[in-house]
Amino acid sequence: MVSTVFNIFGGLAIFIIGMNMMSDGLHKAAGEKMRNILRLFSANRFVAILSGTAVTAVVQSSSASTVMVIGFVNAGLLTLVQAMGIIFGANIGTTVTAQLVAFDISWIIMPSIFLGMLAGFVHKDNWKNWGETLMGLGFLFLGMGIMSGDLKALSGSPAFMQAFQWFDCAPVNGSIPLFSLFGAILVGLVVTCIIQSSSACSGIVIALGASGVLNLYTAVALILGSNIGTTVTAQLAAISANRVAKQTALAHTLFNVIGALIISLTFYLPSGGDAPLFFELVEYLSKDGTLPRKIANAHTIFNVFTTVVLIPFIPLLAKICEKLIPVKKSAERFQRLEVHLLDTPEIALTQTNTALRRMLTKAWRMVDCALKTYNKNDEENQKLVAELEEKEKRIDLYQHDITEYLTKLMNRPLTPKQSIRIPKLLHCTNDAERIGDHTAPICKMIEDFRAKGHALSNAAEEEFNTLHALLAQQAKIVLAVMEDATQESQTKAAKLWGEIYMSCDIYEKNHLARLEAGACDTTTGIFYIDLLTEIRKVARHFSNIAERAWDCQGK
After folding, report:
1. End-to-end Cα distance, the chain
2. Distance separating alpha carbons of residues 292 and 276, to the nearest angstrom
3. Do 430 and 390 touch, CB atoms closer than 8 A?
4. Is residue 1 pLDDT above 80, yes or no?
5. Nearest 5 degrees, angle CA 102-CA 108-CA 111?
6. Cβ(408)–Cβ(341) below 8 Å
7. Which of 276, 303, 330 is the last residue of a domain?
8. Are residues 126 and 224 in the same domain?
9. Rounded distance, CA 372 to CA 341, Å?
10. 59 and 144: one domain?
11. Strand partners of residue 125
């Protein structure tokens, strides 16, 4: 008896390990496409549902994809309504696991494990990813087979079977006992909360059904509870998130609770046959299939039906969530480097690139403001000058946050291509921070120069204005390169860097000639040479970023 119980739990462990391996392998194989899927999210609620279904089918867990969505909302990438559409789709996508394990294809176990191992020896990432997926598939069915086999042995034990009588939902006098129904839902909820995976819970229920321990009615009730229990993961993820993310987690819970209630009501609707309406539909669509197939179909029907029914009510459900968890927009903050996205490296890297671009924009505005203090220091620019010290602290904070985020990301499973992007992003972050650092010396030089009553000659001032304009043009192009690096934009950025570097050399020689001719004094000469040096350094940092932009975006 004890040995059998340990075998069951060992089978469960192998099943969960296999599911995680398959999920990780698929995730890595499809990781490069995650950004493209993300772009679909904002289209409309129907596309969002399809996107949620696709992503969850890949990661094999509605909990994982929902936590990802919470991260998107907390980062400001999605609105509440968009996120709700994805979550609706995630509930459909998670039924793929149940459909998969309902197949009786034990012959695939050993070939999958063996071929997966062979693929792991190939020195190509894609082969390794698909090898991991194959091995995971084999272990998933191996664990399922062990669980089912030992559960059949336990099904002969009166004590074991008695435990399931407490929440047996088989109809009595044509009606499912209400107490047993809610008891089974509660059991499914608690088990899913403990193992943090509705897919694993579905696998357990199907194994119990295949072994003859559960009937279809009890199995479906357990699945309903599992669907509610899976929302706990999203609630935990939203604890430290903003209020819009909390609204999203609440919407997930409300959707699954409402769905469970709707389906439960159909259990008491007559169908004209021997079983309630919902179960007659399951029997009809399963075409005399096995019990595991009926359980898997019931899981899919439940989620598809609930989604179809609730699609028109997404805006209303969103308003309810906004009413229950109100948001003061003035106080709302989005987390640009969202920790929950670290488990999706491709999107985490995209987020980092976005934060870096924002940091670079702020750094350039500081330098631009400092350069304007010489001859364009109007009232608006003076206000910006007063804020430069505080802005430099924010740039330093950006550098700290991005560096810390990328350091955490290094500890996640990454593809070689993703691993290459991290040091490039770190170098670019340092360059952006150094651009901001040049603000203070430029301001100080110009302030001291002006305070002594000095001024550049007309020729030098014209050169300075030309360099300022070229630097502004370079900043604009580099920011565009950071958003979407193309060969053309990188060529433009490189050409501008060459032009600025060459111009600095020419203007320096021109200025030395003016010094020799006595057209300007020594103080002016030193100031102008130092100013050219600062401009050249800023341009060099911009050039460094442009050169690495291609790798930063994984192109």
Report:
1. 57
2. 19
3. no
4. no
5. 155
6. no
7. 330
8. yes
9. 40
10. yes
11. none
Q: How many domains does the chain have?
A: 2
The DSSP H or E segment spanning 78 is: none
The two structure tokens encoding residue 355 = 């934060």
Question: 469 near 375, Cβ under 8 Å?
Answer: no
Q: Give the pLDDT confidence of 26-54 residue by residue, as tens digits.
A: 766 665 565 556 555 656 777 888 888 87
pLDDT at 203: 82
Question: Mean of the pLDDT values across residues 341-346?
Answer: 81
Q: Cα(487)–Cα(270) distance, rounded to whole angstroms?
A: 66
Six-digit token string for 525: 């000469």
Which residues, in sequence order, are CB contacts of 424 under 8 Å at separation 6+? 548, 551, 552
Across the chain, what does the average pLDDT equal?
A: 83
pLDDT confidence tier of residue 331, bands split at 50, 70 and 90: very low
Structure-token pair, residue 28: 């890595």
Average pLDDT over residues 90-101: 82
**pLDDT for the residue numbered 453:** 82
Q: What is the largest CA-CA distance in the chain?
A: 112
Residues 131 and 98 in one domain: yes
Whether the CB-CB separation of 412 and 342 falls below 8 Å is answered with yes
Boundaries of domain holding 351: 339-552
- Verify that 115 and 259 share a domain, yes or no: yes
Where are the alpha helices (H) located in 325-457, listed in sequence order?
345-372, 379-386, 388-410, 416-437, 439-451
Question: Which tokens sit at 405?
Answer: 């985020």
In this structure, the answer to whether residues 421 and 397 fall within a common structural domain is yes
On whether the CB atoms of residues 230 and 63 are closer than 8 A, the answer is yes
The reply to whether 75 and 223 lie within a common domain is yes
Has residue 231 got a pLDDT over 60?
yes
Residue 36 confidence (pLDDT) = 58
